[in-house]
Amino acid sequence: MKKIQVGVIGATGYAGAEICRLIHGHPQAELAAVSSVSFQGMELSAVYPAYYQICDMVCTEQADVVEKSDVVFAALPHGLSQELAAQCLDKGKVFIDLGADFRLESEELYTQWYGGTFQDQELHKQAAYGLPELFRERIKGKRLIANPGCYTTAVPLAVAPALKAGLIEPQGIVADCKSGVTGAGRKPTQSNHYPELNESFTAYKVANHRHTPEIEQTVSMLVGQAVKVTFVPHLLPINRGILATCYARLTPGATLETLWEAYHAMYDGEYFLRLLPEGQCANVKNVRFTNFCDISLFADQRTGTLIAISAIDNMVKGAAGQAIQNMNLAFGLEETAGLVLVPPAF
Question: Is residue 187 very low, low, confident or very high in pLDDT (cuts 50, 70, 90)?
């Protein structure tokens, strides 16, 4: 069987480079072409020496990537994917956007949070939101997929079963999240400069992070009503990982036992979701370099509060791995293909 030809636009950013790494181990797909505006004409392994003699493909132009590929992954800043998506769909390609251009259903919200507009309303209607564990049936066979961000994966997965089962109140949810510095992208800034980041731990973009409306959109879809979430991200002095500690008010009669029943009913059989034993806390260390999401559950009966904790690798389940999971669904492949990865033990 001919392998799926994969193109990566924005291959020298962290998410794009991670796609290239993971596709190398995919049994039914192979890298066909890569592009990079900053490093055009250079081998990918010259930008990332770890890929030497593994992925020495030369970064070319975007048009070349589209022409050679069956599926195009776009790892680009917001505002750059809409025209590219239209070109890919016109040529019969599958387009998976790791940016934010197709994540929000509301143009008003997109304008408010990203400052852009929907260039083609009909194109946006074709997009499926690519969080497989919650919206799998909407993704299968789709040719335009909006890959969620890292926080917007970790938070909904932490609270979804409790919300759907009516065991927590939909209002008053608090998402207290921590991220590794790769979430800020490859381009250096003052905040991720080593002397600023090392031995530091701080909140950022408090009550103003662009993932807020995306998180709210997902959890609102779960309960069929508008939900507001208090979301506070923090920057950890580590390379990889998202830890999302979510707090919600328990509904009358909800107990840790009923919570466990709801989470097992929804997540048993989900390969990438690991419900940890009672009392064990999810740790970003235990999901590194994998597509797993580890989830811990606690019920503070004294205050009537659910404490749901999720941990993911922001570059894999929060970006490239989930994008490949979506590719597998789009092409009718085994969902875990190329993603059966064991986290390092230490």
Answer: confident
Distance set, CA 167 to CA 148, 159, 244, 308, 311 (Å) = 25, 10, 19, 12, 22
DSSP state of 284: G
The C-alpha atoms of residue 213 and residue 111 are separated, in whole angstroms, by 12
What backbone phi and psi angles, to 5 degrees, belong to 242?
-125, 130
Kindly state the helix (H) or strand (E) to which residue 22 belongs, with its residue range: helix 14-23
What is the sign, positive or negative, of the torsion defined by CA atoms of 263, 337, 330, 290?
A: positive
Determine whether 150 is an active site residue. Answer: yes
Percent of the chain exceeding pLDDT 90 equals 94
Q: What is the four-CA torsion angle of 193, 196, 197, 199, rounded to 10 degrees?
A: 150
Q: What are 136's two structure tokens?
A: 């799998």
Rounded Cα distance between 346 and 220, Å, is 38
Kindly write down the DSSP assignment for every residue of 203-271, as one continuous string: E-STT--TTHHHHHHHHHHHHTS---EEEEEEE-SSSS-EEEEEEEEBPTT--HHHHHHHHHHHHTT-T
The secondary structure of residue 31, as a DSSP letter, is E
Threshold 0.85, pTM exceeds: yes
Q: Which of 150, 177, 246, 293 is catalytic?
A: 150
Please give the DSSP secondary-structure letter assigned to residue 316.
I
C-alpha to C-alpha distance for 341 and 289, rounded to whole angstroms: 7
Q: How many CB atoms lie within 10 A of CB 49?
A: 7
pLDDT digits (tens, 9 = 90+) for 234-261: 999 999 999 999 999 999 999 999 999 9
